[in-house]
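Figure caption, in words: inputs first, then the predicted bound structure.
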Amino acid sequence: MCTIELLSNHKINSFKSMRREEVSLCVESIRAAANNRGVAVDLSDKVSSLSVDMSCRMVLGKKYRDEEFDARGFKAVVREGFTKRMKSVNKAFDNLFEKIIEEHLQPNDGERSKDFVDVMVGFMGSEESEYRIERPHIKAIILDMLAASMDTSSTTIEWALSELMRHPKAMNKVQKELENVVGLDRMVEESDLEKLEYLNMVLKETLRLHPVVPLLLPHAAIKDCTVNGYHIPNKSHVIINAWAIGRDPSAWSDAEEFIPERFEGSNIDVRGNHFELIPFGSGRRRCPGMHLGLTVVKIVLAQLVHCFDWELPDSMLPEELDMTEVFGLTISRAKHLRAIPSYRLHK
Ligand code: HEM
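Bound structure (protoporphyrin IX containing FE present):
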């Protein structure tokens, strides 16, 4: 149901104008900050809020303001919920999700794209549908969709921006490509994305060095099998280190270096067809949100690099930018990315 009804290309494309609205709001807030010349913005915070807002609108139909949820705030509790404190925030989630399902059972004006909860409520209790789902399923899937979409995309955007700031030549090249394809008189649209070849190489190179789900999800063998001469007994848990594969010197030359040009004329993609690059996994349990993730990452990255020039604060040199990682279910930056924007479009 998630793959066919919620995360299909068709469904994801139906949220294009919502994404445009939210990305524009983010650009506007950075533009306002840019008026304060020389002042750095916290890009990690900006990108993370944008991602939470887009996920909420797509899954739940609206943004949730912190105070509407719990004294601790919506974003903080969602984050807490994905860590060891799941049990302690369980009640708060359950109350919120019950309220959301109730709201979705009321008639709506039919104007906006149907959010994920609308779609699932539509299947609830139906004898004919091939999906027999009830409230507990819906609540579990809401949580899954928020968990899987909120931090993955924003962390990838942060790493891509960090690498571009450490590599001004690559940053320049992305900006030149955007100038050629889009010009400086309008903002990037999702329909421009497939023409941005260098931006796509930058994204592949970012996902090679910084696959946000470094060990994928745990898999299990469902029968005895032999892979490359190794015997894998039935029921073994199999953990795949995509992070190490992306940096394996036997698969990549200058494996630790950020060189987007390595993908020039290469057919290696990130979709699970080439085992040296598997940031979304591969095969039947590959990430079902890949199209959504790639779309969000590309449009936000393109917009931020097209609309602004970026300078590191405190006269920091590009090579001094701290790239320390924090290891967890996802790998994120240890320190927030801060940089000084200046607006560069003509409108
Ligand atoms: C750049 C963004 C993203 C990356 C790098 C990413 C990566 C991954 C990876 C590596 C897996 C595990 C695959 C495996 O073990 O073989 C996964 C699973 C999953 N992802 Fe994503 N993901 C991203 C965005 C998203 C988004 C936006 C959604 C949307 C809701 C999503 C939904 C899921 C779900 C539901 C699963 C579990 C699938 C299953 O158990 O079969 N992901 N993702």
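The chain has a mean pLDDT of 92.
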